[in-house]
Amino acid sequence: LENLRQQGQFDRSDLPFLEAVAELITLSIDNVRLSQELQATLAFKEANRLKEELISTLAHEMRTPLTSIKGYSTALLMEEVEFSQATQREFLQIIDEECDVLQDLIHDMLESSIIDAGLLKLEFQPTQLPRLARAAVEDLMHQTAKHRFAVDFPPGFPIVDADPQRISQVLRNLVDNAIKYSPEGGLIVVRGEVEPEEVIVSVADQGLGIAPEHLNRLFEKYFRIETGLVRHVVGSGLGLPIAHTIIESHKGRIWAESRLGEGTVLYFSLPLRSPGRDLTDEADE
Question: What angle do CA 209, 219, 165 make, to 5 degrees?
C-alpha cells in the first residue's frame, strides 16, 4: 500500500487488491470483537460459578454448626432428662461457640459482597498496631485452649494512618487462619517490624506449611488448602481475600512465605506516616 501511495494514486486495477485488504481488516476487527465477547462470556460464567461455589460452600459450612445448635438445644429442652448444671453449661457453651461460627461465616459473606460492589470505605486515623494486635489475639484466644500465643512489637512502634476497625479485621483474619491451620500445641506469633518507609506485621504459625504452587492462590476467593489435619477446618474461604483488599486499599502489601513442614508466615505492610507527623506509640514503651 505504501509503495502504491508513493506512486501518486490508485487506479481501477488496484481495486481487487484494496478490496482484499479491506476484507482482511474487517476480519481482524471481527476477530477482536469476537475475542472480547468471548472473554466477557467467560468472565460472566466464572462469576456465576464463583457465586454458586459460595452458596454451596456456605451451605456446607453452616450445616455443622446448625446441627450442633439444634442437637444441644433440643437436649436441653427435654423434660424427661435432667442434666447437671455443669452439663447444661457445657451444652450452652457449645451452642454459643457454634453461633460465633455462623456469625463469622455470614459476616465474611457480607463483607465480600460490599467489596465486590466497590463500597469499601476507610476512615483513616492515627492507629496503634501493637494495641490492635494484642486485642485481636486476646479476642480469639477463647476459641482455643490448645494453642499458644505471643505478641512481639519493639518499643516505640510508629503510629500509622489507617482505619483501625479494618486493620483489626485483617489481624483477626490472619490470626484466625493461623489457629485453623495449626496443630494442637502450636505457637502463633504476631510480630511487628519497622522499615525506613513502612511497618511490617507478620503472623507465624507452626502448621504443616503450604506448597509453593499454592502460595500465590492464598488470597483467591474460596481457595482452601487440604491440611491433612484430622479436624475439619471451618470457614468461608473469604477471610484472606478480604484482608488482601483492605491492605491494598491502605496502599500496603500482603503476602505469604511458607515451606512444607515448617509452618507459614503471613505478612502485611502499611506505609509510615508522612514526615512531620511521625509519632510513636508511647503507650507501649
Answer: 110
Among candidates 87, 110, 101, which has minimal Cα distance to 232?
101
Shared domain check, 132 and 96: no
Domain shared by 150 and 257, yes or no: yes
Pair (101, 144) in one structural domain: no
Same domain, 97 and 161: no
DSSP code per residue over 165-177: HHHHHHHHHHHHH
pLDDT band at 284 (very low <50, low <70, confident <90, very high): very low
Domain end, chosen from 75, 93, 119, is at: 119
- What confidence tens digit (pLDDT) does each residue in 162-193 have? 999 999 999 999 998 898 888 888 899 999 99
Handedness of CA 106, 63, 238, 243 (dihedral sign): positive
What does the pLDDT look like over 233-255, one tens digit per residue? Answer: 555 677 888 999 999 999 999 99
Between 108 and 207, the higher pLDDT residue? 207
* One-character DSSP codes across 38-53: HHHHHHHHHHHHHHHH
- Cα–Cα distance measured from residue 180 to residue 70, given in angstroms and rounded to the nearest whole number: 24
Q: Would you say the C-alpha torsion 126, 131, 137, 140 has a positive or negative sign?
A: negative
Close Cβ partners of 146 (under 8 Å, ≥ 6 residues apart): 184, 185
What is the pTM for the complete model shown? 0.68
